[in-house]
Amino acid sequence: MSQEPHVAQAPRQVRAALLTVSDTRTLETDLSGRYLEEQLHAAGHIVTERRVIPDETVRIRAALVELMPQAQVVILSGGTGIAGRDVTVPVVESMITKPMPGFGELFRMLSYHEVGAAAMLSRAVGGLAGQTLLFALPGSLNAVQTAWKGLLGPELPHLVYEVFRQTSSLPRREAGTE
């Protein structure tokens, strides 16, 4: 069975930045960020940067502004719950120009099968901010694994293709590289 044209034209390599939002984690103790970094590398993608920052509106926005020009995708983990300090989602939503409500809906559906009704506590969100895809995930390793295996891992090249296919920004495949 042949691939659909959009899948065949999707880039093999995506530039992604990782941003963990946490008041308690460091690069060494950030299992979710490490997992994402390993999965991106294993899939042949480029991790442009990986950071851990506190759950503060100004710091999250500043980090996104710095990371977005160097990455096609920024994946955030942490700060998506309903506690008072959880400010990742409002910051990300304020920067998104084209929301992808299906991302959060599908994430919660997948999570429901794993954690039951507690899935409603997740405010996972995704969308396009200018020319950069943003995805905000809960910070737990289990949630990040669910998002990677069920949503981001299989679709990342296709998502980037859809963003850039109308522009000359999409890296072209060289002849004979299949």
UniProtKB/TrEMBL annotation:
Organism of origin: Deinobacterium chartae
One GO CC term on file: cytosol
Domain of life: Bacteria
Keywords for the protein's UniProt record, in alphabetical order: Molybdenum cofactor biosynthesis
Function statement: May be involved in the biosynthesis of molybdopterin.
Residue ranges constituting the MoaB/Mog domain according to the UniProt record: 17-159
PANTHER family reported for this sequence: MOLYBDENUM COFACTOR BIOSYNTHESIS PROTEIN B
Keyword Transmembrane: no
Protein name: Molybdenum cofactor biosynthesis protein B
Pathway linked to the protein: Cofactor biosynthesis; molybdopterin biosynthesis
NCBIfam families given in the database record: molyb_syn
Entries under InterPro entries matching the protein: MoaB, MoaB/Mog-like_dom_sf, MoaB/Mog_dom
Stated family: Belongs to the MoaB/Mog family.
GO biological process: Mo-molybdopterin cofactor biosynthetic process
Pfam families in the cross-refs: MoCF_biosynth (PF00994)
